[in-house]
TrEMBL record:
PANTHER family, A to Z: TECTONIC FAMILY MEMBER, TECTONIC-2
GO annotation, cellular component aspect: MKS complex
The name this protein goes by in its record: Tectonic family member 2
Biological source species: Sarcophilus harrisii
Pfam families hit by this protein: DUF1619_N (PF25752), TCTN_DUF1619 (PF07773)
Transmembrane segments annotated in the record for this chain: 627-648
Known partners and oligomeric status: Part of the tectonic-like complex (also named B9 complex).
Domain Tectonic-1-3 N-terminal: 110-223
Length: 664
């Protein structure tokens, strides 16, 4: 707790629950003891507020005492806190303790404690008439910025500390400086003789910084939809069939959509499915807002104009393993048969031939839950494209080299079914290792995954090391990896490389390594898989990448059981992780610049000191300070004035006199 208030949630059935607040003795270093007694609204300078909600209660602890020790106008950069307290919030029912929350309070001096916070909205001035920022060095709201003398949050005592070192110029608040062409500016020796005739009569409010704005154009808002525009002509790009990355269309002239994970990690509910683009995504949905998607059996896909529609073949399978898909559940039962069905997994298999979709097989795994059940549902959506005569058998990962994003092929010569894969954990449910699913390691994609292992306080260290090691090794049940993407599983000599294992040496028996209750040294916690890859050449202009070696190593840590206020007989969660890294040898060097890039760099005004294109910048298309015709008129006026000055200067008159004498 670093502020004057903190809020926590008490989850569960909070009916008839009393909440107490207890202070600790920081001087003696004694933690507060839980007081599971009557309801308490505060202790000393601290107040406690409990607000009931549907799924629990909101507990707010607030400092109501004197904040004068934290109000400092000179020492607001102190490294030492002004208030240090230890608080304990206890929840009980019928004098029986249910939950504890330990709060460590450290509040540091801050000048904002002495300020009156205003709730008025900030008024942004019109930039056409006055500069947008009257104090550019004021970077923090409610706090004094050092060396910023125009900051209204700085008190006179604070300004005395840096008054002689204030920021100058526009950044320091001088947004209306007198410019050189102002007639009131003192004349210097470098000023031209024509300065009195060409100077500007203006007030300081007409600052040069007023021109930094754009004349905005109002345009109607465009609503984006996944509906394909209808063409007036009968010709369509579908006449030639689909090709890779083209969106699949339905009979309603709309994109066929399936929930997918975007690049930023969010789940897009209606994302178009691209032809020949496989994906396997997981989306988390709140059960209270869950809505069933449209019936896939009623969707019709099209290949091209005039052809028959593709009718999906849907198979439903009921699942009872809800713990892998739903977590943080809470059910409030009501009388009556109020149940609903949810989709846990949806598998779409497209079969295609000659750029046409021939079949769509859909496999939906669903479950029945109570209508009032709450929690988070993790749904899986998988799309696979297969050729018309393809089987679900062995697939290549390239021919001959690996394709980026394809699974790394592995072989286990010690198993009857020698085909194997190298996997990563795929999080589902609560994240426990016993509930995790796996996904294959993809070529060229570095990845990190992990899970949580439950460990009790009286866990045997030898047994713990063995269990964790077996759990990590279960991801790599292979002895060899394929050098190429099309290595033959039936021929060990066809480019199969043996995996190098760097096992962790467990401690031997001795006084130092004796098992201590709650502490186990040298427990393997991280497994690292390194792949050495290289480019073996090009085939028809396509680079062919191969694997040169694979190594598996382990990193160990000292596990220690973490107790709260009391060491309860509940297991701790021990995190396990596995990382995959592809190392390219030799490292790829930076490509040399082409002649076009060199020529473009010479004209780059951002990186060069000389920029010829800015010689007439006001007349170029890049200048947007004012309209083009206004700039052109002003430029022509300057050209006229410059020509007039040259014409009436003394050399012309002197030349005219010489010409007149020569004539006579």
């Amino acid at each position: 707790m670093f502020d004057t208030s903190v809020t926590a949630a008490l989850v569960g059935d909070t009916e008839n629950v009393s909440v107490m607040l207890t202070l600790g003795d920081d001087a003696l270093g004694i933690l507060p003891m839980p007081d599971c007694g009557l309801q308490s609204n505060g202790t000393g300078n601290w107040s406690l507020t409990v607000t009931p909600h549907a799924r629990g209660s909101e507990v707010t602890v607030r400092l109501d005492g004197d904040l004068q020790p934290c109000v400092s106008e000179t020492d607001f950069f102190s490294e030492y806190p002004c208030i240090v307290e230890t608080l304990l919030v206890s929840a009980s029912r019928n004098s029986s303790c249910l939950a504890h929350l330990l709060i460590q309070v450290e509040i540091y001096p801050n000048t904002s404690f002495a300020q009156n916070v205003s709730e008025n909205a900030t008024i942004i001035p019109n930039q056409v008439y006055q500069p947008l920022g009257p104090c550019p060095c004021d970077l923090f709201i409610g706090a004094c910025d050092v060396q910023c003398c125009c900051d209204q949050d700085c008190t006179p005592h604070l300004k005395d500390l840096f008054r002689e070192h204030c920021f100058t110029g526009v950044f320091g608040g001088n947004v209306n400086p007198p410019f050189d062409h102002l007639c009131s500016t003192p004349v210097t020796e470098e000023v031209s003789d024509l300065f009195p005739f060409l100077c500007v009569q203006s007030s300081l409010e007409n600052t040069p910084f007023l021109g930094y704005f754009f004349h905005g154009l109002i345009s109607p808002r465009t609503e984006h939809t996944f509906r394909v525009p209808r063409y007036s002509s009968s010709t369509s790009w579908l006449d030639l069939g689909y090709w890779q990355d083209r969106p699949i269309l339905t009979s309603n002239n709309e994109f066929f959509t399936i929930p997918q994970v975007s690049l930023v990690g969010q789940c897009v509910q209606k994302a178009p499915v691209a032809f020949l683009r496989n994906f396997d995504s997981n989306c988390a949905t709140n059960l209270t807002t869950y809505q069933e998607r449209e019936n896939i059996s009623e969707v019709r896909l099209i290949n091209s104009l005039g052809e028959d529609w593709i009718v999906p073949e849907v198979v439903y399978e009921e699942s009872t393993a809800l713990n892998k898909f739903i977590y943080d559940t809470e059910t409030i039962l009501h009388p009556g048969p109020t149940f609903k069905s949810v989709h846990l997994e949806e598998h779409y298999t497209f079969r295609w031939k000659e750029n046409k979709i021939t079949e769509l097989n859909v496999r939906i795994i669903w479950a029945k839950i109570h209508a009032d059940q709450q929690g988070t549902l993790t749904q899986r959506f998988k799309v696979t494209f297969l050729t018309f005569n393809a089987t679900e058998g062995l697939k290549r990962s390239g021919n001959p080299g690996y394709h980026p994003g394809k699974p790394v092929r592995a072989l286990n010569v010690a198993s009857a079914e020698n085909v194997s894969t190298i996997n990563l954990w795929r999080p589902v449910g609560s994240g426990l290792c016993t509930e995790m699913e796996t996904s294959p390691v993809l070529f060229g994609e570095d990845a990190v995954s992990g899970c949580l292992w439950e460990v009790a306080i009286d866990e045997n260290c030898t047994h713990l090391r063995a269990e964790v090691m077996n759990r990590l090794k279960s991801l790599v049940q292979a002895t060899h990896v394929a050098k190429k993407g099309n290595s033959d599983y039936g021929n060990i000599q066809d480019g199969w490389l043996k995996i190098i294992w760097r096992d962790t040496h467990f401690p031997q028996e001795g006084p130092y390594f004796m098992d201590i209750k709650g502490i186990c040294p040298d427990v393997p916690a991280t497994m690292t898989i390194h792949f050495l890859i290289s480019n073996s050449g090009n085939l028809e202009g396509i680079p062919q990448d191969v694997i040169l070696g694979a190594e598996v190593s382990f990193s160990s840590v000292t596990w220690q059981f973490h107790c709260g206020i009391t060491c309860e007989d509940k297991p701790n969660l021990f995190p396990l992780s596995v990382s995959v890294q592809f190392i390219r040898i030799p490292p790829q060097l930076t490509q040399p610049l082409t002649s076009f890039q060199i020529s473009l760099a010479n004209r780059d005004c951002t990186n060069n000191e000389v920029c010829w294109s800015e010689l007439i910048f006001p007349l170029s298309k890049y200048y947007q300070g004012e309209y083009y015709y206004s700039c052109l008129a002003k430029s022509l006026m300057l050209v006229f004035i410059f020509s007039l000055i040259i014409f009436i200067r003394n050399p012309w008159i002197r030349e005219h006199m010489i010409w007149g004498l020569s004539v006579f």
